Amino acid sequence: MARVASDDVYDWWSRHPRALDVLYAMAFLGREASFRRRATAALALTPGERVLEVGCGNGNSLAALRDGVGTDGTVLGVDASEGMTAAASDRVGDAGWRNVHVLQGDARRPPVPDETFDASYAAMSLSAVPDPEDAVAATRTALRPGGRFVVPDAQPFDRWPWRALNPLVVPTAEWATDWVPDVDLTAALGREFDSVDVSTFHGGSIFVARARKRE
Q1: I want to staple 52 with a disulfide (CB 3.0 to 4.6 A). Which of 30, 94, 117, 158 is the partner?
Q2: CA dihedral in degrees (169, 172, 175, 180; nearest 10)?
Q3: Mean pLDDT score, 100-126
């Protein structure tokens, strides 16, 4: 049976952005900004491209994605949480970005036509989807041939002595973020995409995966 996601969790986080900042600081051990820069750089965006962000949250990556595609490109953020979608939309409106758009939608069935995006990005979002494999497959469908998909995300520690923290970290993250730690996202990417490169950090708990669809 599919695990039912609680969008209320992320609606709560959307109303408490400072608490969310603390959560990310803990997850990335204070290096959130550097990991996000590394991940968006891995997309290798060029002016005029179309990029889809899967699980855009409150829109904290939209500026970097827009910088990559320039004013002639298009950025579309999709998130299941009504609160997060509203927060991201407010961010776009305040910035006056005409080529950045936000929609509420399910990552497993994003409201976009097939093969319309050059690249996709999913930061710390796929691991909170009830069926992450379906979200990976749907993202592949949304990408054009040769499209890139970059995923910075978290997984349980896989090295000693870090693994000793899993009994504490895993249930706490499941409670706080609807995390699905038992799904191997990098393996799911490997099943759907033709090439996948993965870099891991912090005892294997943080990874940046870059997948490419066949031309």
Answers
A1: 117
A2: 0
A3: 95
Mean pLDDT, range 52-67, rounded to an integer: 96
* Whether 75 contacts 65, CB under 8 Å: yes
Enter the pTM of the model. 0.87
- Among residues 123, 119, 85, which one has the least CA distance to residue 102? 85
Residues near 154 by beta carbon (within 8 Å), at least 6 away in sequence: 27, 124, 127, 173, 179, 205, 206, 207
Q: Residue 201: which H helix or E strand, with range?
A: strand 195-201
Spell out the CATH class of 7-212: alpha beta
Exposure string over 59-93, b if 16+ CB within 10 A, otherwise e: bbbbbbbbebbeeebbbbbbbbbebbbbbbbebbe
For residue range 61-102, what is the model confidence (pLDDT) as tens digits? Answer: 999 999 999 999 999 999 999 999 999 999 999 999 999 999
Question: What is the identity of the amino acid at 4?
Answer: V
Question: What are the domain boundaries of the chain?
Answer: 7-212
Torsions phi, psi for 158 (to 5 deg) = -120, 10
Q: How far, in Å, CA of 66 to CA of 47, rounded? A: 9
Q: Which residue matches tokens 């927060």? A: 87
Confidence (pLDDT) at 157: 61
Q: How far apart are CA 143 and CA 37, in angstroms?
A: 22
